[in-house]
Amino acid sequence: xxxxxxxxxxFARGEGMGFLDMEVYVSSRNQFRVGIFKQExxxxxxxxxxxxxxxxxxxxxxxxSFTENLAAEGxxxxxKDAMENAAIMDGEEGDEIFVGAAPEDYARxxxxxxxxxxxxxxxxxxxxxxxxGEAYALDNRVFTAQVSVGDNSGETLLMxxxxxxxxxxxxxxxxxxxxxxxxxxxxxxxxxxxASRDFSCLDAAKMAGEAVEEALSLLGAEPVASGxxxxxxxxxxxxxxxxxxxxxxxxxxxxxxxxxxxxxxxERIMSEVIxxxxxxxxxxxPAAAPxxxxxxxxxxxxVVEAGVLKTLLHNQKTAKKDGVASTGNAHKAAxxxxxxxxxxxxxxxxGQAGYxxxxxxxxxGLLVTGVQGTHAGANPVSxxxxxxxxxxxxxxxxxxxxxxxxxxxGNFFAMLSDVQAVxxxxxxxxxxxxxxxxxxxSLAVSGA
Amino acid sequence: xLTKALLEDCIAAALGxxxxxxxxxxxxxxxxxxxxxxxxxxxxxxxxEYGIGIRIxxxxxxxxxxxxxxxREGLLRVAKEAAEALPGVNGERRxxxxxxxxxxxxxxxxxxxxxxxxxxxxxxxxxxxxxxxxDPIISQVSVRYFDEDQHVQIANSGGLLVEDRRVRTRxxxxxxxxxxxxxQSGMLAPGAHMGFDFYDKIDIDTYAREAARMASTMIHxxxxxxxxxxxxxxxxxxxxxxxxxCGHSLEATSVAKKTSVFADKLGEKIAADCVSAVxxxxxxxxxxxxxxxDEGHPTQRNLLIENGILKGYLIDMLNxxxxxxxxxxxxxxxxxxxxxxxRMTNTFILAGPYTKEEIIANTxxxxxxxxxxxxxxxxxxxxxxxxVNEAYIVRNGKVMEPVRGASLIGKGAEILTRIDMVANNLxxxxxxxxxxxxxxxxxxxxxxxxxSEITVGGRKGDK
Lengths: 448, 463
Prior knowledge:
The structure holds two protein chains of two kinds.
Chain A: H1 3-17, E1 22-37, E2 40-58, E3 61-67, H2 75-87, H3 114-117, H4 121-138, E4 142-160, E5 165-183, E6 186-196, H5 204-217, E7 227-233, H6 235-244, H7 251-255, E8 276-278, E9 301-305, E10 308-309, H8 316-322, E11 330-331, E12 340-341, E13 346-348, H9 355-362, E14 365-372, E15 384-395, E16 398-411, H10 412-417, E17 419-422, E18 433-434, E19 438-446
Parallel strand pairs in A: 7-14, 13-18
Antiparallel strand pairs in A: 1-2, 1-4, 2-3, 4-5, 5-6, 7-19, 8-9, 8-13, 9-10, 11-12, 14-15, 15-16, 16-19, 17-19
Helix pairs in contact in A: 4-5
Chain B: H1 4-14, E1 21-37, E2 40-58, E3 61-67, H2 72-83, E4 98-99, H3 117-132, E5 138-156, E6 160-179, E7 182-188, E8 191-192, H4 198-201, H5 204-219, E9 222-223, E10 227-233, H6 240-245, H7 252-255, E11 277-280, E12 301-306, E13 309-310, H8 317-323, E14 331-332, E15 341-342, E16 346-349, H9 356-361, E17 365-377, E18 383-395, E19 398-404, E20 407-411, H10 412-418, E21 419-422, E22 427-435, E23 438-446, E24 449-457
Parallel strand pairs in B: 4-6, 9-19, 10-17, 16-23
Antiparallel strand pairs in B: 1-2, 1-5, 2-3, 5-6, 6-7, 6-8, 10-24, 11-12, 11-16, 12-13, 14-15, 17-18, 18-19, 18-20, 20-24, 21-24, 22-23
Helix pairs in contact in B: 1-2, 3-5
């Protein structure tokens, strides 16, 4: 189907209905995923999907509507929906369709790896089977290993009635293992990921080894006594915390009174060892894109530099309200979500200390290697968290024993003001948010 | 929706290799999502999700494919591509679908699209004002209104052909209280498998004031204590404890592979005598109810636990093959983009003999969890966690000062045996439950219960 032709037709019909400026945003995705259980194909998914969102200015207000049925007869309903939605909006200064930037303002970004697109299904099936085989072979206490691998590719097309046409292609592959180990009545589980745009970079043995080794090392875990402990958050836990508390960095949240960072630009909000970057142009990460959800050119910027909040993240509307320029962080949670604000590839800049050196620097305390329930036990508005956690008790910089059934509690911003040292092990997992391991002065721990 | 002939041809194409069962799921869903912040409508989005999922089974192997392309050529191509993932060759299959009527349990009077959007805005404005005016300490209120009208058509190689229509609406109110640099929020989000007539049945303003009360109570509260103690969990959304601590571990997704702590335990004692629990997808107009599940089978009331004895699991067709057990009308999916699997619908602990007041009066020291937030569980280890949105200290049989920031952690199998009092005030609350087949509406529920000991994760002395 000729999407660009369809968009032009929508613009023509929309103009007839009274829309001034209009935009069409189309996401087309192809997905493949295969899961293995005991060397049998347990799940196998093939998918192709496409969705179109229309938005347009009518009567000074923005109206949105979307559809997945791109048959021409649905277009009338799409425009009518958008018109009705605009009518009930309380129009706001700053709602507009982007006029576009000069072509040279858009970075060249290669986020599509042709070799990944050519990997046959049989090779992916062989890969998951190898991971599972490796996991069972590592230790006879491995009870089950659930393994899957998938890849996702697609195109984002943005066209507007100012004549702006942008498109971006990307693909990405990710493998996952969940290993369950049993020793007597003791059951432990651990996960590991492998992610890349290059299928040959997915290391089956490494991924299996990481999950199995970690699960085994947690056998025999017990709580520690309640109290305050110095804590090292391993890189994956630090990453989960940053992901959970990314929303306060949105100017939209701040302007709506839902962020503690409102009015804090230029102020010290964290320890001076913390610098946080947002880099949409990090080509190897999945969120890499040369333009944001409203077509604005993206760029790399420091959000926090040496503990000082340098900027909030903006789209055009929030930027206009604050009298600044957009940071290129307009975001849609899905093709059919309204334009909001979110980070792109967002990460804490690594420091000097190796992982072992961080533990040595802490000496006595807790190493936290997993937290659960961040969707519930953490409040991005207040910054407060109380999360189920597990990891290891550390003495003289060495692991003494595994620990589980504890909670760690505190406030995200207070915690990042209490960072004693930053590790050199920045890791993004399979996603767009990254962090190195962090040594925190102390956190409240609830246990036995 | 697709024609019977096209559905039949699709199924036949899907069985072109060695598949022994094929199913086509067609979904056409209209939805409206309105958001109001600070009394202003700041977004209103409506639209149509539309697609087709094709599932093929060969023994316990399963292939799933989906597309938005509903043309004959497009669908047959996807069906064939999916079939190619399975080995073997079947002879020519003739599929003869027979359209069946389904039980109409969830009657809908006011279809969302017949309601003027201004009425939806008026509802939200009322809720906004009720919350904002509750207390000057309330600094911000956001209201989110949602409705959907989902048509599904489900056909399979066994000849089944059914159509269902699921209409739901939900309105969430978040109130934020501010004091100095601190913020606390209160949130409630009632919903139902109903049309706009739901708002004749409930008073949304009452929920809005309750969300504001929660935020204004918590902004004045000190941090919760840490450690193990008796916990009284109030009725309604408090049932999330059973949902997380036990419900997920009774889904065939983890039972069939024996990764659940409750696998192979039918007929065994897994909970205290005072605990009986069901999953009931047939409750008229309840948030998690369905006329038929996403495999096209009527939902049912499934007894899970009776007087502490494990009586049943929640089973879908594919896992039923693994377990050699019958499906229980529990197969669900977020949309055509997910293969269905066993999920909860409306899951709750049944009422017991005590009053809530008796439970409190019989508790010397502990935590009263008035409103729970969400939680999660690891079904392999049984370890769960969830957040408490509003809590109080109970001392000498009386409810004392409010405390904030508590979470509860533990192991499902242990918690179930430690429930020692169950009240008579069964109530359900609405949630979105996320798992393998996506995010689906689910009711959780219980009467007020007491658990003799849970680890409370607080940070008292930290403020």
